[in-house]
Amino acid sequence: MSDRVYNFSAGPSMLPLSVLEQAASEMTNYRGSGMSVMEMTHRGKIYQAIFDEVKADLRRVMSVPESHEILFMQGGATFQFAAVPLNLMGENGTADYAVTGNFAKLAAKEAKKYGNVNIVASTEETNNTTIPTQDELKLSDNASYFYYCANNTIYGTEWNYVPETKAPIVCDMSSNILSKPVDVSKFGVLYAGVQKNMAPAGMAVVIIDKALAGKELPYTPTIMNYKTMIDKDSMYNTPPCYTIYMLGLTLKWVEENGGVAGMEKLRNERSSMLYNFLDESKLFKGAAEKAARSGMNVTFRTGNEELDALFVKEATAKGFANLKGHRNTGGMRASIYNAMPVEGVKALVDFMKEFEAKNG
Ligand SMILES: *Cc1c(COP(=O)(O)O)cnc(C)c1O
């Protein structure tokens, strides 16, 4: 452990050490099979058992109701920016999009290729430091679906409520899935690229109300078709076998640590430690409005670009990796997903205090 750093990367990001160690111990010979999970056929009994268990574990951990199917799809979260409108928009359809950051903006732009996009709210005017209230959403009457991004990874803002809409809700939860309990029954489709809080990159988990499948536009690529993926249990082609196995190890870890309720407790501990410090600091300032603060990505700055750069440099040397903010925002960002130990955040805050004492 001593040679590992506290990695504050926004993604791909930290995985629990015990998960990595278990993967390492099973790497060359998975439980007496004589081969690695990455070497075995996805059509065999051993892999099918892994796959079924991961799905069952995810269903239990997230309390996914029987009305919803769990899919594992390649192409990360960005693949879903196209898959969502292709499957749900309908011919000459309209979809409502709340644009509260870069990823929602990219999703809305992609959706425009396939139908009408109604921007129900945009936080561009506040530099995406805010989240709209329910009253501020200018919802349309005839939307095929309402789309939002639950946690804005780049700007460090997070929706603390699920909007109420007539249309089915589609939600990008890439950067806050498994960090707190979610009522899955409220969502038509929720999805997450797995590299923030679940597994190595290369896949999205998609949880879909089965009643919404089968309405895809006629030119929808087969590989993007939710109905096909449901019918083939995510094995229309070779699934990302090893990533799914890794997700399984992470889910066991989540359950051992109190499930999503346990994750929420840890999340609150980590984020309040950082935000409390930012609120009393004379040097560092939180970037997001208080009411919109993310429990996963904490954005902050000193207000002086040279000092920001010095901070990132000195932090890196002390073993706090990847604190530089996104190129769109500048400043700093500490991504504190499930696998970040509370001690990592405590050590970071101690270092920030030291830095402030020297440079404040
Ligand atoms: C990282 C991220 C994405 C992009 O994920 P890819 O897997 O690279 O496509 C999309 N949405 C959110 C909220 C993210 O955090």
Describe the structure.
The protein is globular. The chain starts with 5 loop residues before the first strand and ends with a helix. With 360 residues, the protein is α/β, with parallel strands linked by helices. The protein has a seven-stranded mixed beta sheet, sandwiched between helices. A hairpin with a 4-residue loop joins β6 (151-152) and β7 (157-158). It contains nine helices and 14 strands. It folds into two domains: 18-256, Aspartate Aminotransferase, domain 2 (3-Layer(aba) Sandwich); 259-359, Aspartate Aminotransferase, domain 1 (Alpha-Beta Complex), CATH 3.90.1150.
> SSE string, helix = H, strand = E?
EHHEHEHEEEEEEEHHHEEHEEH
In the CATH hierarchy, the architecture of the largest domain is 3-Layer(aba) Sandwich
- Biggest beta sheet attributes: 7 strands, mixed
User: How far is the first residue's CA from the last residue's CA?
Assistant: 33 Å
CATH class of the largest domain: Alpha Beta
Q: From the alpha carbons, calculate the radius of gyration and give it in angstroms.
A: 21 Å
Query: Structural class of the secondary structure composition?
Result: alpha/beta
Q: Could you list the spans in which at least 5 consecutive residues all have pLDDT below 50?
A: none
Q: At the fourth CATH level, what is the homologous superfamily of the largest domain?
A: Type I PLP-dependent aspartate aminotransferase-like (Major domain)
Strand content: 15-25%
